[in-house]
């Protein structure tokens, strides 16, 4: 990476981390603290407040990304961060759960994930973009783990309003970072690998394998939000732990799950058993949901089932984006990821809202976790019919800003190279997108062919 690319990648990964920290910090404590507000005795309202963020995020994520193509990446990012900061202050000042719902909805309206990804694509060369995206993915995973451990203690110090004010402060810091650290792109253009295309959307929505993945991320994150809607209450009431001590549970289960997740993912990728690992993790998630529903009499079993849950969750969270990349058509990867992320946001709303309603109606968690188990059963059925993904990776090559050859002819020639499974040349984006075998493909021949076409 060039210094500019490294600066942009690290800066945008940090921006993502700051923003996600504000969202993740409330996960382990929201249900307890929101329950103390007027109206907090209505768990359905608490569930709505918890999930309102996901609803507006799902509605605005794709439009904000497309809007950034027209008005500029940074302008949309500033607007989104401002909305997130305003929503955070509204949540901090809320004196009733109803106002908390409004504030959370405003927070979610700052839907800038697609704009950040597009800006990253503007600022990195094709051959370095995967590394840059990996930095963002790593920042999200580490922020999630840190938040689970730090949030209970932090909430004890400053309360939920304090966390929301801290979030607003971090968001303002992020806006300053966008101004001072993130470079301005020399050229801003559409990137099929990072952005959603309206013309490719119908094909993605009809793609049977991608539909399986979209349901999967929906089920996974609906269950996640449902669990965090009630788990803080369970740890306090059933487990007998004060909120400040909840990290005693989260820290070991998160560490163990990360350690066990790594060999499973490596085995799936390197040994070409990704589908088997995927189905195993869904089965493990089903076991965790059934265990939480049917046998959770004390703190020990809460820890056991949370450990099983997080092992499965981390494997699935790590493998699903890889599967999307392998399955999606080369020129529609950004569109596929956009739909995938929208399904994830929508599930955050529905998972917490339905869990809150069920807890209000039944006063127990059994129905919640049985519903989550049913989601996993359906997911297992869909995953069983999934075609085993090819052991491929995506390679991108810049073909030159002045290139005027035949895109179709170059695509055919590139597709004929040993180890290339799919090739498409996009003249407007000045890029050749290839799906190639993870090992044994003739990269030198591809580079030579592209170089020769530049000189014609």
UniProtKB/TrEMBL annotation:
For this protein, what is any one GO molecular function term? transmembrane transporter activity
Bilayer topology reads: Multi-pass membrane protein
Q: Name one GO cellular component term.
A: plasma membrane
Query: Which residue windows are transmembrane per the record?
Result: 12-33, 45-64, 76-95, 101-120, 132-151, 157-178, 215-235, 247-266, 278-296, 302-319, 339-359, 365-386
Compartments, record wording: Cell membrane
In terms of Gene3D superfamilies, this protein maps to: 3.30.70.100, MFS general substrate transporter like domains
Q: Where is the signal peptide?
A: none
Q: Which residues form the Major facilitator superfamily (MFS) profile domain?
A: 8-391
- Alphabetically list the UniProt keywords: Cell membrane, Membrane, Transmembrane, Transmembrane helix, Transport
Q: Does the keyword Cell membrane apply?
A: yes
Q: What superkingdom does the record give? A: Bacteria
Q: What's one Pfam family here?
A: MFS_1
Kindly give the InterPro entries that the UniProt entry links to this protein: MFS, MFS_dom, MFS_trans_sf, MFS_Transporters
Query: Which PANTHER family does the UniProt record give?
Result: MULTIDRUG RESISTANCE PROTEIN MDTH, RESISTANCE PROTEIN MDTM, PUTATIVE-RELATED-RELATED
**Could you tell me what this protein is called?**
MFS transporter
């Amino acid at each position: 990476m060039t210094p500019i690319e490294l600066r942009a990648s690290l800066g945008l990964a940090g921006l993502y981390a700051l923003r996600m920290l504000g969202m993740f910090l409330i996960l382990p404590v929201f249900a307890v603290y929101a329950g103390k507000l007027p109206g907090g005795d209505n768990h359905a309202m608490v569930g709505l407040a918890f999930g309102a963020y996901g609803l507006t995020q799902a509605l605005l994520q794709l439009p904000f990304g497309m809007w950034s193509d027209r008005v500029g990446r940074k302008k949309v990012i500033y607007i989104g961060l401002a909305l997130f900061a305003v929503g955070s202050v509204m949540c901090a000042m809320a004196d009733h759960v109803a106002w908390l719902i409004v504030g959370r909805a405003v927070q979610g309206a700052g839907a800038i994930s697609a704009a950040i990804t597009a800006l990253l694509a503007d600022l990195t060369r094709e051959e370095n973009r995967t590394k840059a995206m990996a930095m963002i993915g790593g920042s999200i995973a580490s922020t999630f783990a840190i938040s689970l451990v730090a949030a209970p203690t932090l909430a004890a110090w400053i309360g939920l309003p304090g966390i929301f004010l801290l979030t607003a402060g971090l968001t303002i810091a992020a806006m300053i970072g966008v101004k001072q650290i993130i470079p301005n792109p020399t050229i801003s253009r559409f990137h099929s690998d990072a952005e959603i295309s309206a013309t490719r959307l119908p094909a993605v929505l009809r793609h049977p394998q991608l539909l399986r993945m979209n349901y999967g991320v929906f089920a996974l994150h609906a269950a996640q939000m449902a669990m965090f809607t009630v788990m803080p209450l369970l740890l306090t009431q059933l487990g007998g732990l004060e909120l400040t001590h909840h990290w005693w549970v989260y820290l070991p289960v998160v560490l163990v799950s990360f350690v066990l997740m790594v060999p499973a993912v490596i085995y799936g990728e390197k040994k070409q058993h990704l589908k088997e690992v995927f189905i195993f993790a869904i089965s493990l998630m089903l076991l965790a949901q059934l265990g939480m529903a049917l046998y959770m009499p004390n703190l020990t079993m809460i820890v056991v089932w949370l450990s099983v849950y997080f092992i499965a969750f981390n494997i699935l969270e790590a493998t699903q984006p890889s599967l999307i990349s392998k399955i999606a058509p080369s020129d529609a990867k950004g569109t596929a990821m956009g739909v995938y992320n929208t399904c994830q946001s929508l599930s955050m709303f529905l998972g917490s809202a339905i869990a809150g309603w069920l807890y209000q109606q039944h006063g127990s968690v059994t129905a919640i976790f049985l519903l989550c188990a049913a989601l996993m059963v359906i997911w297992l059925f869909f995953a069983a019919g999934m075609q085993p993904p090819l052991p491929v990776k995506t390679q991108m090559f810049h073909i030159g800003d002045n290139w005027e050859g035949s895109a179709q002819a170059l695509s055919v020639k590139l597709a004929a190279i040993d180890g290339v499974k799919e090739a498409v040349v996009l003249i407007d984006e000045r890029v050749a997108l290839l799906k190639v075998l993870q090992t044994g493909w003739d990269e030198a021949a591809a580079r030579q062919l592209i170089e020769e076409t530049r000189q014609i």
